[in-house]
């Protein structure tokens, strides 16, 4: 069993820290919107990727089921 973690690792910064709540004054609204837009684009891309993966999983599941049905039919004929 390891000892306690160093303070820098074990405790996240305080949520009430001014740095956590407000961007620096020099950050323009345009920059914040740009970052938000980029984040939204990444989220949408990840959702599309997840949808494609789910579609592939469904197709593989269907294919596996059909293979099992064919195998059962083959075994029943013997």
From TrEMBL:
PANTHER family, per the entry: OS02G0580700 PROTEIN
Highest taxon, organism lineage: Eukaryota
Record-given protein name: Uncharacterized protein
Organism: Nymphaea colorata (pocket water lily)
């Amino acid at each position: 069993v390891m000892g306690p973690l160093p303070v820098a690792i074990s405790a996240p910064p305080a949520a009430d820290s001014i740095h956590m709540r407000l961007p620096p004054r020099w950050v323009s609204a345009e920059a914040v919107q740009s970052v938000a837009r980029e984040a939204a684009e990444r989220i949408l891309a990840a959702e599309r990727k997840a949808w494609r993966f789910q579609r592939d999983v469904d197709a593989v599941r269907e294919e596996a089921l059909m293979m099992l049905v064919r195998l059962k039919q083959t075994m029943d004929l013997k």
